[in-house]
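Tokens in:
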């Protein structure tokens, strides 16, 4: 591409790609952050000087490829185009055979954490296994999980479970296979961000709130010593101002969550670190600028010693110059730096790999594939005694068969990726039809029955009232505060409900549990059928 051609294309700013200036490097680590509409890449270099100084890296190159479709690759099932985007990054930066770390946007996975004694963690994991199939926000079909479990103190354990859609993760795995790229692990982006917060020393002395706004939705977590303690999705937050309102409303509840954990009861949750662009971060910082309850800061890499090269040099290929289409902002660098950190700092840190079940399923047929690949070589060895000529002929024939088989396998993988996308859409349509048939116009007593069947194990519904304004008031009791958010997440997906508001929580007078109140707004088209049903159910 020459300069005249560059000027003729005004669709987006163009910046030269960065390249490493180290003549000799000891290590080169690669990571990706996957969002629906873009791929973020980081390449971290460690020179001899960095090794001597015990630094994780001394230069990092970042790059990105955006999707041309505003709907993105993943949600739209445009897996072939995602292959092209990944191939572009691979060729541009000469990504080799080393496994790369992948951070997956929280739009496509959720994280659940348990901290406590061995018995407490075992009980929580058992209850979680029963709730995972009901995670409707991950889409229809089966789910896959990734787990970590470690001892964090005397008699205390920390268990983290990442959950994702099986079909979506299988498609992502096939995309990397088609690009001949090996994946080290795929973990939720909030887990990566919490690890970065710990490495920067921001949660060393007390737990802190962290927020990831790089994707399409806001993710909120509590981080302590680099470990994620809570994953909370404020669905009502569409921008920085609404997110600030949510945090202000739920701050006391989040503080109580920390105080109920052993080892953190003496700490005050008074800091929030936000990752994202200025358009999202600045309204939050401004909102709490004069608030004594919470200090808000943007996540930066100012304390890191890395030299970050985004687009400060030009690659000359003959008479042409190669440019990056869109520049990488400093805030985006934070997101991808969190993904590459385990590779350059401590590769032994536990990671909740969302591909571990998919790898295990594919490994069952490994022996069969090995036998199918190497049988021509075994045949050639047997025929060696017959004569040199026959051996040569058999080797030539075996090579032709291998090439044909590789071609067929490549075509099959491409077909599987396309068919999986079609199957995903079919399952989604079937899922929507089922929901429409069963829940489009239920009576109030049917809503009560559905909610009672899907409540968490330690949660029960105490009352339900339909008032004259066509709003439903729920009152319930729970032993675990986290279960309130699961109840809210489920109710939001009832077709007749268009508004969900948590009115408040109170300590139960009879036991150690919490009493919560939720107000539900019904869609206008369903109000007439419920005009005469105002009642209370105990």
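Residues out:
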């Amino acid at each position: 591409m020459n300069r005249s051609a560059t000027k003729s294309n005004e669709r987006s700013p163009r910046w030269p790609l960065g390249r490493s200036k180290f003549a000799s490097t000891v290590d080169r680590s690669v990571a990706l952050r996957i969002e629906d509409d873009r791929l973020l890449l980081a390449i971290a270099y460690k020179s001899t000087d960095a090794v001597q100084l015990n630094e994780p890296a001394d230069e990092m190159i970042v790059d990105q490829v955006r999707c041309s479709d505003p709907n993105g690759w993943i949600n739209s099932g445009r897996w072939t185009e995602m292959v092209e985007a990944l191939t572009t990054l691979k060729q541009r930066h000469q990504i080799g055979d080393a496994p790369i770390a992948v951070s997956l946007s929280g739009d496509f996975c959720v994280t659940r954490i348990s901290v406590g004694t061995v018995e407490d963690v075992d009980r929580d994991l058992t209850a979680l296994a029963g709730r995972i199939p009901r995670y409707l926000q991950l889409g229809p079909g089966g789910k896959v999980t990734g787990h970590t479990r470690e001892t964090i103190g005397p008699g205390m354990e920390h268990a983290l479970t990442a959950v994702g859609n099986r079909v979506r993760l299988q498609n992502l795995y096939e995309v990397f296979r088609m690009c001949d790229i090996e994946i080290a692990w795929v973990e939720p982006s909030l887990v990566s961000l919490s690890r970065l917060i710990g490495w920067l020393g921001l949660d060393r002395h007390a737990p802190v709130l962290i927020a990831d706004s790089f994707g399409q939705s806001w993710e909120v977590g509590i981080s302590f010593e680099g470990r994620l303690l809570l994953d909370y999705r404020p669905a009502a937050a569409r921008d920085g101002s609404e997110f600030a309102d949510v945090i202000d409303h739920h701050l006391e509840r989040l503080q109580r969550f920390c105080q109920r954990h052993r080892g953190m009861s003496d700490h005050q949750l008074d800091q929030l670190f936000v990752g994202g662009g200025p358009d999202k971060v600045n309204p939050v910082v401004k909102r709490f600028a004069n608030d004594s309850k919470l200090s808000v800061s943007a996540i930066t890499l100012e304390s890191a010693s890395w030299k970050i090269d985004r687009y400060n040099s030009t690659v000359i290929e003959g008479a042409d110059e190669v440019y990056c289409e869109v520049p990488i902002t400093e805030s985006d660098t934070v997101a991808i730096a969190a993904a590459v950190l385990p590779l350059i700092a401590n590769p032994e840190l536990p990671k909740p790999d969302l591909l571990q079940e998919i790898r295990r399923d594919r490994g069952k047929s490994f022996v069969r594939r090995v036998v199918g690949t190497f049988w021509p070589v075994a045949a050639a060895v047997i025929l060696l005694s017959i004569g040199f000529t026959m051996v040569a002929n058999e080797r030539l024939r075996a090579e032709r068969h291998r090439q044909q088989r590789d071609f067929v396998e490549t075509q099959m993988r491409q077909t599987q990726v396309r068919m999986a996308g079609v199957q995903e859409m079919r399952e989604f349509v079937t899922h929507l039809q089922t929901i429409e048939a069963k829940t489009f116009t239920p009576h109030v007593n049917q809503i009560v029955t559905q909610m009672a069947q899907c409540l968490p194990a330690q949660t029960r519904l105490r009352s339900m009232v339909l008032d004259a304004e066509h709003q439903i008031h729920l009152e319930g009791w729970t032993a675990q505060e986290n279960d309130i958010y699961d109840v809210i997440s489920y109710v939001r997906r009832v077709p007749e409900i268009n508004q969900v508001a948590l009115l408040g929580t109170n300590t139960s007078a009879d036991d150690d549990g919490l009493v919560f109140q939720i107000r539900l707004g019904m869609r206008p088209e369903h109000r007439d059928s419920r005009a005469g049903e105002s009642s209370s159910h105990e």
